[in-house]
């Protein structure tokens, strides 16, 4: 906080609250100041907060807003410069907070929160690794089950069931299962389409373990792949390899993204890659750093992120390969190990 010129920060985003206090509930706010840490929840979560936090002052908002309780708590008595995250604090709630704290100056501290979330402690990295391991176990099971006639929606439901069976708390996000021409829908939802011989099937899913997420994508083919599918898959795999090879400690994220795009350009497919190359992952499925052409981030040790190049031909097919990596002093460590070749089922 001192580095940012702040006396205290007000935290309203649930996963950042969890990181700072250990509280996993969905309603509340936290304040970190030089005089300590305060967590305010509503009565539904008072017992849970007592169980999950340590060395945190607790208050319960009964019949009034969390912001009013925070404002009169005294936690800001010596604080004149307060950081907030404008992305998560609504205007109406900010007004309540500011009205209760006259003569204070508020400053957007989003960059500080992003820095806090971007670099993971070893225990956080270990939790992501466990989540990745569960999802890869699920992927192996799916490849044994997959056959023509199955519906996308039913396969997605099986992913959820298998995640729980193998020890996950829940899915990290709604599983994506797309087949045939629907694979070009980058974030499409599983439908009632039945898989056919010759189809591509795109899986994009993850799970949650101890609050931390996994996120992997693989594309497989039912039976024999057409030459254009094999060529496109080779291009995506080459882009993935080029991106990983370009990663060194401190490298600009935009340069890594460019490595993938330059590779796809050699295949004449760079204009078929419309999304960012990757994103950070942790307590949320999308966290800093952002690996994209416009990113200002650098990849530094302790960051955990995905690399996920793709190629999409509308109404024909789509291919994506996604891995999770940890940035170390020696370079990137790939922690997802599922086969990346075009698997024929």
Number of strands: 22
What ranges have pLDDT less than 50 throughout 5 or more consecutive residues?
Answer: none
- Distance from N terminus to C terminus (CA atoms, Å) equals 53 Å
Q: Could you tell me the mean pLDDT?
A: 96
Sum up the overall morphology in one term: elongated
Key structural traits:
345 residues, alpha+beta, six-stranded mixed beta sheet, four-stranded mixed beta sheet, 9 helices, 22 strands, 25% strand, elongated
Would you write up a description of this structure?
The protein has 345 residues and is an alpha+beta fold. The chain is 32% helix and 25% strand. The chain has nine helices and 22 strands. A six-stranded mixed beta sheet has the order 4-3-2-1-5-6. A four-stranded mixed beta sheet has the order 8-9-12-22, with helices on one face. It has a three-stranded antiparallel beta sheet with strand order 7-10-11. Helix 6 (122-145) crosses helix 7 (152-165) and helix 8 (227-245) packs antiparallel against helix 9 (253-266). The model has no long low-confidence stretch (mean pLDDT 96).
């Amino acid at each position: 906080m001192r580095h940012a010129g702040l006396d205290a920060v007000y935290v309203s985003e649930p996963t950042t609250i969890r990181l700072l206090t250990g509280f996993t509930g969905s309603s509340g706010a936290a304040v970190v100041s030089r005089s300590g840490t305060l967590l305010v929840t509503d009565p539904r979560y008072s017992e849970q907060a007592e169980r999950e936090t340590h060395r945190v002052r607790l208050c319960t908002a009964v019949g009034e807003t969390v912001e009013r309780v925070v404002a009169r708590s005294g936690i800001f008595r010596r604080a004149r410069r307060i950081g907030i995250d404008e992305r998560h604090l609504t205007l109406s709630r900010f007004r309540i907070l500011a009205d209760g704290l006259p003569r204070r100056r508020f400053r957007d501290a989003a960059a500080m929160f992003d820095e806090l979330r971007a670099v993971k402690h070893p225990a956080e990295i270990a939790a992501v690794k466990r989540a990745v391991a569960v999802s890869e176990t699920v992927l192996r099971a799916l490849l044994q089950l997959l056959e023509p006639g199955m519906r996308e929606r039913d396969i997605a439901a099986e992913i959820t069931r298998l995640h729980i069976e193998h020890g996950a708390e829940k899915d990290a996000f709604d599983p994506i299962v797309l087949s045939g021409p629907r694979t070009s829908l980058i974030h499409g939802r599983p439908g009632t389409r039945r898989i056919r011989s010759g189809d591509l099937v795109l899986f994009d899913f993850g799970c949650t373990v101890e609050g931390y997420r996994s996120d992997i994508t693989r594309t497989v083919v039912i039976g024999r792949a057409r030459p254009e599918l094999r060529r496109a898959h080779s291009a995506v795999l080459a882009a993935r390899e080029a991106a990983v090879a370009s990663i060194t400690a401190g490298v600009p994220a935009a340069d890594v993204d460019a490595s993938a795009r330059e590779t796809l350009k050699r295949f004449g497919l760079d204009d078929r890659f419309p999304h960012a190359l990757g994103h950070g992952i942790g307590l949320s499925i999308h966290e800093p750093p952002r690996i994209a052409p416009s990113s200002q981030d650098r990849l530094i040790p302790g960051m955990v992120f995905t690399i996920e190049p793709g190629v999409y031909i509308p109404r024909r097919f789509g291919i994506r390969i996604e891995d999770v990596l940890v940035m170390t002093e020696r370079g990137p460590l790939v922690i997802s190990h599922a086969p990346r070749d075009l698997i024929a089922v």
